[in-house]
């Protein structure tokens, strides 16, 4: 089942490829400050050393692509570059895929600020959710969003997700443990 390309109304979701490196690096560089408040960070460990001491360094683009492809082939996580024509506009990942009694996952994403507010992210979330429900047979998808991220809250709601509740200090984001709102969508075809 992997690799797979998914088509939305406005976007195309494609697995990351080595040849995407230049565009990915450019878009990420141009959006560094824009994305910084929402980016995951590494907390201090209980022994006082930063978790980064236990991780060699941020992987190269090529190592990242290899890891993402390996995870997708194993069915644990599916990461896609979001394209509008020939323009890389973001990235979306459905991770934490669990089968068995839960049959669920969570979605995370980022969008180039030049394409924000134009429906691309909503289309990407809706397209990936449809794939998760129809092709993978998942029952439940979560999107966890910081309360102050009004744009992402609109994306979740427009994509048919509903608020399930709050998660205190849920993820380490931009240097601190941050509260999140949990949005959920249920696959009504799986009973």
From TrEMBL:
Gene3D superfamilies reported in the protein's UniProt record: 3.40.630.30
Keywords, ordered alphabetically: Acyltransferase, Transferase
GO molecular function: protein-N-terminal-alanine acetyltransferase activity
Domain N-acetyltransferase: residue ranges: 11-188
PROSITE patterns: GNAT
A GO cellular component annotation in the UniProt record: cytoplasm
Family according to the record: Belongs to the acetyltransferase family. RimJ subfamily.
Full protein name: Unannotated protein
């Amino acid at each position: 089942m992997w690799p797979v390309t998914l088509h939305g109304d406005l976007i195309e979701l494609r697995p990351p490829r080595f040849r995407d490196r230049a565009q990915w690096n450019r878009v990420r560089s141009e959006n560094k400050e824009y994305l910084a408040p929402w980016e995951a960070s590494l907390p201090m460990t209980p022994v006082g050393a930063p978790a980064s001491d236990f991780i060699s360094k941020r992987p190269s683009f090529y190592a990242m692509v290899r890891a993402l492809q390996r995870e997708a082939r194993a069915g644990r996580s599916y990461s896609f570059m979001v394209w509008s024509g020939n323009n890389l506009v973001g990235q979306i990942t459905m991770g934490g895929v669990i089968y068995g009694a839960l049959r669920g996952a969570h979605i995370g994403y980022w969008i180039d600020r030049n394409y924000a507010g134009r429906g691309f992210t909503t289309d990407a979330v809706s397209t990936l959710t449809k794939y998760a429900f129809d092709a993978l047979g998942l029952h439940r998808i979560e999107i966890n969003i910081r309360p102050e991220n009004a744009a992402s809250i609109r994306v979740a709601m427009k994509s048919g997700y509903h608020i399930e509740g709050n998660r205190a200090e849920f993820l380490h984001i931009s240097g601190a443990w941050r509260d999140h709102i949990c949005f959920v969508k249920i696959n009504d075809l799986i009973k």
